[in-house]
Amino acid sequence: MAASSSLTVSQSLVGRTRAHHGSTTTTHSDRLSLPGFSLSTLAGRGIKSSSSPSSLVVGSRKRVNSRSAVRAAAVETLDKTDTTLVENSINTIRFLAIDAVEKANSGHPGLPMGCAPMGHILYDEVMEYNPKNPKWFNRDRFVLSAGHGCMLQYALLHLAGYDSVKEEDLKSFRQWGSQTPGHPENFETPGVEVTTGPLGQGIANAVGLALAEKHLAARFNKPDCDIVDHYTYVILGDGCQMEGIANEACSLAGHWGLGKLIAFYDDNHISIDGDTDIAFTESVDTRFEGLGWHVIWVKNGNTGYDEIRAAIKEAKAVKDKPTLIKVTTTIGYGSPNKANSYSVHGSALGAKEVDATRKNLGWPYEPFHVPEDVKKHWSRHVPEGAALEAEWNAKFAEYEKKYKEEAAELKSLISGELPAGWDKALPTYTPESPADATRNLSQQCLNALAKVLPGLLGGSADLASSNMTLLKMYGDFQKDTPEERNVRFGVREHGMGAICNGIALHSPGLIPYCATFFVFTDYMRAAIRISALSEAGVIYVMTHDSIGLGEDGPTHQPIEHLASFRAMPNILMLRPADGNETAGAYKVAVLNKKRPSILALSRQKLPQLPGTSIEGVEKGGYIISDNSSGNKPDVILIGTGSELEISAKAADELRKEGKAVRVVSFVSWELFDEQSDAYKESVLPAAVSARVSIEAGTTFGWEKIVGSKGKAIGIDRFGASAPAGKIYKEFGITAEAVIAAAKSMLG
Amino acid sequence: MAASSSLTVSQSLVGRTRAHHGSTTTTHSDRLSLPGFSLSTLAGRGIKSSSSPSSLVVGSRKRVNSRSAVRAAAVETLDKTDTTLVENSINTIRFLAIDAVEKANSGHPGLPMGCAPMGHILYDEVMEYNPKNPKWFNRDRFVLSAGHGCMLQYALLHLAGYDSVKEEDLKSFRQWGSQTPGHPENFETPGVEVTTGPLGQGIANAVGLALAEKHLAARFNKPDCDIVDHYTYVILGDGCQMEGIANEACSLAGHWGLGKLIAFYDDNHISIDGDTDIAFTESVDTRFEGLGWHVIWVKNGNTGYDEIRAAIKEAKAVKDKPTLIKVTTTIGYGSPNKANSYSVHGSALGAKEVDATRKNLGWPYEPFHVPEDVKKHWSRHVPEGAALEAEWNAKFAEYEKKYKEEAAELKSLISGELPAGWDKALPTYTPESPADATRNLSQQCLNALAKVLPGLLGGSADLASSNMTLLKMYGDFQKDTPEERNVRFGVREHGMGAICNGIALHSPGLIPYCATFFVFTDYMRAAIRISALSEAGVIYVMTHDSIGLGEDGPTHQPIEHLASFRAMPNILMLRPADGNETAGAYKVAVLNKKRPSILALSRQKLPQLPGTSIEGVEKGGYIISDNSSGNKPDVILIGTGSELEISAKAADELRKEGKAVRVVSFVSWELFDEQSDAYKESVLPAAVSARVSIEAGTTFGWEKIVGSKGKAIGIDRFGASAPAGKIYKEFGITAEAVIAAAKSMLG
């Protein structure tokens, strides 16, 4: 009922001055002004100061480069012919999608057909990028959160001249080995920023990308030079809007005032099960106003190109809030019999309907054909992109002269190169060092690393004082202090993970970490999986990693979590036992930029154990003590994290009784798996079948390590609410149990 | 900015008629009218028609039973003395919480201190329940979504006379074996409806409880008898509000118009990391208006008892929308030095501050003391609760006379007793039956069961036509058709799971199922874990269970998911291979009311295999074919789900070469684990170490089954986008691979 009253509807071409947003200064981002300028061609571009208030136009049908100083000298007028050109371009996008899905007989044509106009305007008129260097640092970022519509993005990348999507790639859409998989994957297709498809992830990634931009801009921009300066655009659909993760991330985007985040909500009223009326009748506009966003409604997203342009203009003018542009479209626009129905969402149209759609939209061409006028029109993006990057490079050279230190730091963030000797900053410990919880030792590592790693930033989902994640030398990243590095995510684990994916994939040198209780990885598992799949080197700082957390009880006590992540591909599950191992875990985590790491850390105090080391951690499993010889211990005791201490204690007892006992720390199964067979044999000799593992978690999977004659001590039920010591005892996670198991094998 | 303008503030005691809500009929729920009636005592209650418009009062300081016909004959006036009594009661709640946390030196005193007023009003003045039968069907449900504040609920249950929380239970708060664990757990503490603590789950459970009430009321109520008729109350905090799951579930609650769901939002501005300003500045009110809720703001939740009462009255008057009552409170109210700070959230106050708080609130009593006047006042709830239940029982007897069939069905839903021979409805198949995807076979089972199980209802997260979950004989559960059984959850997996937990725990005979792609269990894992922990027998219908889904690619292809659920306690992970096994999986799922089941189902067609059976599934692992004798096969081939066919094919080839080959279907590890040693030996004899397993998922964990000399064939990397057959071949999930592995063992 309050839904429509408070909605801002932008239908006018004329850009409005939104005085109530309060920003009146003429800055680098104050670049939206007089309409009427015309399409620039690269050849004719000169260099002009970007601070000119009339230096660009968005909201007209002309494209003028906005942020760069590149400007048109030659003027090309977009008149009626140009409208035809725009429509041809939009229909090209539609039919590339239709044809690719048809050829694969698999895929989602509906979204590309409906979103082609906004896609065209973004990639052809608005966004700044360099097709031949998809990783150019200062590019605008685009995220297709509704990832099933990936043919939209592939068509756009193809038209724009990206090498990753040639005609043959479109023709091998969704086929083995192609660069055009069924959903956008950054690790397969240069030009794709993040991996989407699982709904809601993309918009949250985009919040991370926009956060990264705001943070880096605040750190590196100077009054005379905005060296970091790009927008983040997203297209999300009804599905994304329904997902809780989207609400979490968008609440943060509003809180942080991410003014350069512009999200297009493809409001097409159709989801897989039919009309959204059956499950989604909330007022999205009102909700986003509640979240602190600027909301615009484009009522005619199908052919209202100028409406879309005006909305972008308005969105850019609002500098202190992210903008949601609700674009009402028709899913499968152009298909006479399937448009506006769920049947066009996720299946090929079928030959007959493809023909009918060709007739309906007046498209006489063969499949995959790009008309010459469209090809010619888009061909400018390759030289223009090169010029944009060249211009930025020149700008950077100027910047470097004036701000040497900052330039060097920014360079390292762009390249991802770690400062020489950074790992020397990691603390080391001796057995005499005081006992401490690994969550506290983790904080020592984080704070040590913050001094040497310019890209380290992160925080917790409202558990900073429990997860021990605050960087003491920095303040909070907030709307008005975006240069700071402590990020306050609130109780939004899922959004947090996906935001960190966005940060990690913004620039190779950014190293985001995030934290909650280990059990609550369940809330963010979908985002963690995307970290692993998309090679986003996020560091997950997960404390309270077992029944050792005590009284909070079984809702808070992880049991199956270690196993569940050991089973996940391309992720490092690390469970350090003390200070040296925690430092080792951080070393591994920082070095694995293309593989996320999860650190499982204790709430409770643990002693500094003799024999632990950073180098040991790097091998995943290693011997911390051994009184055997000839690689023939009587028994091998294996522990991880807080239970390594128990293994060590049990070993002491057994050795008193004359046994030859080896104690192995098994901090990371994945790293151990990667060692040579010889090394593995040196730690776990095949001939020694007397093996006892102990870990305060499920025994699931441990047969691999202890073998069928070994014994895994663990917990295969839910935990309980009581003081930690009591729970350990009641559940038999004790040195006595290890000793008994060992003795039963030794006969 | 629109936040406050549209907010409905209720501060008046006088109930407003909210004409714009449109409901003007005088029905059973139209029971809020004239204030001024007085506290009923049970002894004086007569029987009077509940349709009288003046039959109850909420919004005065008097408690009059609302829904029951029990009415006061004796009138007791609550004057100034009574305000003192109310304050004493509220302070009793506060100090029981303070003292229990202090004794345990662990827990969360802040919320109970701030929410004691609303807690008192709910349990003493508003809610209908029977302390001596916490499972009385028609009770009002209460959910403490901010579960860390559990001492609030324990104190209330104690005062109300529940046997589960005696004084000694309060004194053993958070101790081993107590009924007062660190967070509310329905399986530990009668009177607790659901298990909370992980934030956001509780409000979503409450949506499920309210859905169940609306559904059952629509099915069973008659114009002359509202046999199903209760409210669902929730207290949630800032943490719950930040969680995406809460937004998902509340969007559905608004969509469904759950008018009898009344949520109290404890707006205390403090979360663990400090002031909510650091991460949570959205307008919750505006968001909830967008979600279609009625929103009320109680500005003084600390002492504004009448404001709280008036808000409840207003909430009840709004019948077509759920209500959010934002109650602004002070966390740790009463503590002179710690109130309104994060330090009172999750730690004991400490002896000194406890003393100061006692002084500040004028509380001269020893720890755990309940003053006599408070004890006397609350003592009426035991007889009153008994009378409420007796009255409802009498009503039910009347109902039963008139509506025999409905009464029998409702009885079975209340008791959870399954109809005799229900499992005969399950379809069976022969090898001649057509090949089909197990997702389709699952739909046949669901539709067969819907005819015989009155409590079966559920749906999908916007994938009904992919998950094949529609019950063809029913329509959609919607706002105006709540009697139907197809629930449309939208793309809200997490909310869906938690809503199903609420449905399952509403009544033993309700059997909720819910569905999405198997990989998206990642989105709802926290809710699935609560199903397992809280013994909620939800059936999770998870289709597209492997790389066999093909072109959608690695974002959609589960790899680690089977292992990750096998590692989770108290859950059945079932992966049927064909029609008989799918039927068997449903039989097991329905019978396991206190253990949730996950059915992993194929997108692709699978043949009906010789040897499969419902009975086999019940044993978890069983032989489907064998040409060996004396329990001594040369090799055992083990498969699950879509790969059982591959094992069978490989066996055929090997037998042609004269080998004695056993094929074992390993549909559920958990069920196999529960069989006798003799049975296990009959399927997997210890002497036979030549074992090959094949499963299109991670090999993690399979060492337990195949042993160190066996071979597990699977996929330990992410999948790929291509047609399914191609992916199987490229990843080596083939009969050839099984044959090669078997031969390598046979020498």
UniProtKB/TrEMBL annotation, chains A, B:
Binding, thiamine diphosphate: H148, G197, P198, L199, G239, N268, H345, F520
Entry annotation: catalytic residues: E493
UniProt KW keywords: Magnesium, Metal-binding, Thiamine pyrophosphate, Transferase
Compositionally biased spans, kind Polar residues: 1-14
GO MF annotations in UniProt: metal ion binding; transketolase activity
Keyword Metal-binding attached: yes
GO biological process: pentose-phosphate shunt
Assembly behavior: Homodimer.
Protein name in the entry: transketolase
Gene: LOC104602251
